[in-house]
Amino acid sequence: MSDESGPENSHETADRDGGADEHVSIWMLPERPARGPRPAYSRGQITQAAVRIADAEGLDAASMRRIAAEIGTGAMSLYRYVPSRDDLIELMIDHVLGELDLPERPSGDWRADLTLLAERNRAMRLRHPWFSEADRAHPSFGPNALRTVEFSAGALDVGIPIDDILVLVGLVNGYVDNSVRQELGWRDEQRRSGMSREKWMFRTSPYVRRLVESGEHPMFTRIVKDARQPHMGFDAAFRYGLERVLDCIEAALPDVPD
Prior knowledge:
Radius of gyration: 23 Å
Strand order of the largest sheet: 1-2
Order of helices and strands: EEHHHHHHHHHHH
Largest sheet: 2 strands, antiparallel
Helix content: 55-70%
Oligomer: single chain
């Protein structure tokens, strides 16, 4: 990823006691200054250009310089709107989270709500392969991210501790992320070498047969002989796995009377 941190003092301000710098979130900064000329661009325009570039060429390609060329301005002028590279990625993440198109509030059927969230999250990540690379360990507090939190956590607000809600929502999100990474990995493999998953399985079958015949790997042998999931299409495999994840969540929830 390119190192474009922007002006040194644009994003951190010293606290009033003279201690360590205090981080100023992009979400705390106004879209436009209270005074001065009307801005020629908006954060939305810059973010949309960055997403278009990342979709087509990867996250690293979405540099300030490249975005500036896309919208027809100088790179340094963009820092008036987006102070740093980290801020840009934060805006990009929140922008595509807006594509999830979730209802205003959960329906009361937690399983249906989490299924909807998982399916739309998967579809969004497949449309934007860079998302998994850009997604951070720390949470985002953009408006679309917060809307997603309210919906997902609210779906499981059925009388369990908030820490349990966080773990269970994380279980669904982690499953989606892992599933999408695998699917994108096979996409990249086929694009790079022409090796589809089916071709790879055929190519490795002589060695797999030798492993099975050795009798030394009983669980691997069961996978080879009995598992259906490796032979499913990506959509079917995703739905199968998601149902198992939701079954685990159901087992952790208190009984809710009909």
